[in-house]
TrEMBL record:
The lineage of its organism: Eukaryota, Fungi, Dikarya, Basidiomycota, Agaricomycotina. Heme binds at residue 483. It comes from Exidia glandulosa HHB12029. This is Cytochrome P450. Pfam families: p450. Gene3D superfamilies: Cytochrome P450 (1.10.630.10). Belongs to the cytochrome P450 family. Its cofactor is heme. InterPro entries: Cyt_P450, Cyt_P450_CS, Cyt_P450_E_CYP52_fungi, Cyt_P450_E_grp-I, Cyt_P450_sf. Keywords: Heme, Iron, Metal-binding, Monooxygenase, Oxidoreductase, Signal. PROSITE patterns: CYTOCHROME_P450. One of its GO terms (molecular function) is heme binding. It comes from the Eukaryota.
Length: 570
C-alpha cells in the first residue's frame, strides 16, 4: 500500500506503477514471510486448528485463480467458480490463495464471524479504500466506534411507527403502475430491472425504490419515475453511474488487495462519481440552506446529521457520504428482491395463483393494503422468503479478521480451521442458501411451502432448517450489523407486490427482447449443476444480485386499469 500510494502520488507513468507495485509484493512477503509463518504455526497449534484448505494454482500468488475469477465474472452461473473450488477441496471453508482470503460456505463459521466473535472481525481499511470515492465514510464502510455512532443515529428512522406508514409507498407505487400500464397497453416488452450497460435504463424497480428511499429518508424524492413519464431523463445518467460505481466496487472486492493493479490510469470510479455528485449535491446543498427552518420533511438531515456535524463544517462531502451509504443499502437491494419475485412468479403460475388468491381474500381487488393486512398474509411472506433464499440480494459479503481465531467449521472434515489475523473472509449466502446437505434435496427448487410451518399470523416464518440452523438463512446478514432496513424492506416489497397483483392480470417473460448474450447459454439446458437447467435468466452479482441484460417481461393489465393510461409519452 505504501508503494502504491507513493507511486500514485509522484505521478509515475502507468507501466512503472504496475512494475513498482508488482515488485513490492514478493519483497514484502520475503521480509515478513519467514518469521510470520513460524508465528502462525505456533498460533495455529495453540488454537488447536488446521490450515484452511487452499486452491492450488499454477502461477505465483495464485494469479491464475484470480484471473479466472475476473474473466468468469458474468459468464458462469453466479458464484459457480467458488462452488467448484469448495467441491474440489471438499471443504465448506477454503482459501483461494489470493493473499490469504478465505471463502466460507459454512453457516457455523458465518455465525462465528458475524455474531459470536463480532469484535474480532471488521470491514476494514481495505474495504473502505475500495469504496472511498463512491461511499466515503458512512454506516456501510466504517467500523468500531465510528460505525456505532452512525448506527445509533440511523436507528430512529426505522422505528415501528415509521415503517408502518405506507403513504410513501402508495404515492410511488401509483406512478410505477402508471408507467407499467403505458407499456402493457401497447403489448411492448419492458425491462423491469435495468440493463447495467444501457445509456437509457428503463429500470422501473430501481426507480421505484430510489423514489421511495429518498422520500422515506429525506422527506423529498428525486422523482426518477416522473422523469420517465416527462421525457426528461437526466436521472437515467445518474442511475447508470450508480450502477457503474457499484459494479466497480464489487469487482474490487472480488479481486482483493491487488485491485489497484487493474486500475493503473487512476481511480476508475471517478467519472461515475462525478455524475452522481451532480445530482445529489444540489439536494444536499438545498437542505443545508434551509438550516434555519428545518421542517419535518428534512427529518433525516436534522436527525442523522445533527447540527454539530453539518452546520459548523457545511461539509457536503460528509453529508453526501451518508446519503450514498443508505441509498446503496436501500435502492439496489429492493430492486433486486422485486425483480426476482416477478421472475419467480412468471416461472411458477401455481404460486402466482395462490398469491393472487391471498391478496383477494385479505385485501380485495383495489383497497390499499395496511400493515395489519401484510401481517396476515403468510403466503406472501413465504414467497418473499423463498425469493430471498434462492436469490439473496446481497449474495457475497466480506469481513477482515482483527486477531487470529479458530473457525468451528463443522462442515469441513479437517475440524476447526485457522483464521490468521488481518486476512479477508468472504461468506457466500447464495451458496449457503442452496446447500443440499442443509436444505435437503429440494434446495434448488422454488417452493414457498417450505416456509409454511405452524407459526402464528404475524410471527416470522421459519423453515425447519432455519430453526435448527439460523445462520443457514441470512439475506439480511446477522448479528449486531444486521440490516437496519429489514422490516422496511419486507413492508415495501409486500406492498408493491400486492398492488401489482391487484392491477396486473398476468406477467410473462419476453425472452426475445433480452439483449444478445443475456439469456442462459445453451449448455445449461443439459447441466446437472444447481439451477442451471431450470434457469431462464442469468443471475449475476455485482454488489447486489441482478439479472444480466435486465428482466424483460410483458404484462397484461386488468380490466379497469388497461384503458386508464393510453398513449406512450416515451
Ligand atoms: C430486500 C432488501 C434488503 C436486503 C436483502 C438487505 C440486506 C442487507 C445486508 C446483507 C446488509 C449487511 C451489509 C454488510 O454487512 O456489509 C445490510 C445492511 C444495511 N441495510 Fe439492508 N437490505 C435490504 C434493504 C434495505 C433497505 C430498504 C434499507 C433502508 C431503507 C436498508 C438499510 C441498511 C443499512 C442502513 C445497513 C447497514 C447496517 C450496518 O452496517 O450497521 N436495507 N442490508
Amino acid at each position: 500500500h505504501v508503494v502504491l500510494r507513493a507511486a500514485g502520488g509522484v505521478g509515475l507513468p502507468a507501466w512503472l506503477k504496475i512494475v513498482a507495485y508488482a515488485a513490492s509484493i514478493p519483497v514484502a512477503q520475503y521480509i515478513r514471510g519467514i518469521p510470520a509463518n513460524r508465528a502462525r504455526r505456533r498460533d495455529m497449534a495453540r488454537l488447536g486448528a488446521h490450515p484452511v484448505p487452499r486452491v492450488k494454482g499454477w502461477l505465483p500468488g495464485n494469479l491464475d485463480v484470480l484471473w479466472n475469477l475476473v474473466v468468469s465474472d458474468g459468464e458462469e452461473y453466479c458464484a459457480e467458480t467458488m462452488r467448484k473450488h469448495a467441491e474440489t477441496l471438499q471443504s465448506a471453508t477454503f482459501d483461494m490463495g489470493i493473499l490469504w482470503a478465505s471463502q466460507v460456505l459454512d453457516p457455523a463459521n458465518v455465525q462465528h464471524v458475524l455474531a459470536t466473535s463480532f469484535n474480532d472481525f471488521e470491514k476494514g481499511v481495505k474495504f473502505r479504500d475500495m469504496f472511498d470515492l463512491f461511499l466515503g465514510q458512512g454506516i456501510f464502510t466504517t467500523d468500531g466506534e465510528q460505525w456505532k455512532e452512525h448506527r445509533a443515529l440511523a436507528k430512529p428512522f426505522f422505528s415501528r411507527e415509521r415503517i408502518t406508514d405506507f403513504r410513501c409507498f402508495d404515492r410511488h407505487a401509483d406512478k410505477m403502475l402508471h408507467v407499467m400500464a403505458l407499456y402493457a397497453n401497447h403489448g411492448d416488452p419492458m425491462d423491469i430491472q435495468a440493463r447495467t450497460d444501457s445509456q437509457f435504463p428503463f429500470d422501473i424497480f430501481c426507480r421505484f425504490s430510489m423514489d421511495v428511499g429518498t422520500d422515506f429518508l429525506f422527506g423529498r424524492c428525486v422523482k426518477s419515475l416522473d422523469a420517465l413519464i416527462c421525457h426528461d431523463d437526466s436521472f437515467g445518467r445518474f442511475s447508470t453511474a450508480f450502477n457503474a460505481a457499484t459494479h466497480l466496487g464489487a469487482t474490487r472486492v472480488r479481486i482483493g488487495s491487488l485491485w489497484p493493479l487493474f486500475e493503473p490510469f487512476g481511480d476508475r470510479a471517478a467519472p461515475a462519481v462525478n455524475i452522481i455528485r451532480d445530482l445529489i449535491d444540489p439536494i444536499i446543498q438545498d437542505a443545508m440552506l434551509k438550516k434555519g427552518q428545518l421542517q419535518s420533511s428534512d427529518r433525516l438531515i436534522a436527525t442523522i446529521w445533527p447540527s454539530s456535524l453539518i452546520y459548523p463544517t457545511l461539509d457536503v462531502d460528509l453529508v453526501r457520504a451518508e446519503v450514498m451509504n443508505i441509498l446503496l443499502a436501500a435502492r439496489d437491494t429492493m430492486a433486486s428482491i422485486l425483480t426476482f419475485t416477478i421472475y419467480c412468479l412468471t416461472q411458477h403460475p401455481g404460486v402466482q395463483d395462490a398469491l393472487r388468491h391471498e391478496v383477494e381474500r385479505v385485501v380485495g381487488e383495489s383497497r390499499e393494503p395496511t400493515h395489519e393486512d401484510i401481517r396476515e398474509m403468510r403466503y406472501l411472506r413465504a414467497v418473499l422468503n423463498e425469493v430471498l433464499r434462492l436469490f439473496p440480494p446481497v449474495p457475497f459479503n466480506i469481513r477482515r479478521s482483527v486477531g487470529s481465531s479458530a473457525l468451528p467449521s463443522p462442515l469441513s472434515p479437517q475440524g476447526p480451521l485457522y483464521m490468521p489475523a488481518n486476512v479477508s473472509i468472504t461468506f457466500i449466502s447464495l451458496l449457503i442458501h442452496r446447500r443440499t446437505d442443509i436444505w435437503g434435496p429440494s434446495a434448488h427448487k422454488f417452493d414457498p411451502e417450505r416456509w409454511l410451518g405452524p407459526s402464528e399470523p404475524g410471527e416470522d416464518l421459519k423453515t425447519k432448517v432455519h430453526v435448527a440452523n439460523p445462520f443457514a438463512f441470512l439475506p439480511f446478514n446477522a448479528g449486531p450489523r444486521i440490516c437496519l432496513g429489514q422490516q422496511f424492506a419486507y413492508a415495501e416489497a409486500s406492498f408493491i407486490i400486492i398492488r401489482l397483483l391487484q392491477r396486473v392480470k398476468s406477467f410473462e417473460l419476453a425472452p426475445e427482447a433480452q439483449p444478445e448474450g443475456s439469456l442462459p447459454p445453451a449448455d445449461w439446458a443439459s447441466s446437472t449443476i444447481g439451477r442451471e437447467s431450470i434457469e431462464r435468466c442469468r443471475p449475476v452479482s455485482s454488489l447486489v444480485l441482478s439479472i444480466k441484460g435486465g428482466l424483460w417481461i410483458r404484462a397484461k393489465m386488468k380490466e379497469g386499469y388497461a384503458h386508464l393510461h393510453d398513449g406512450n409519452p416515451l
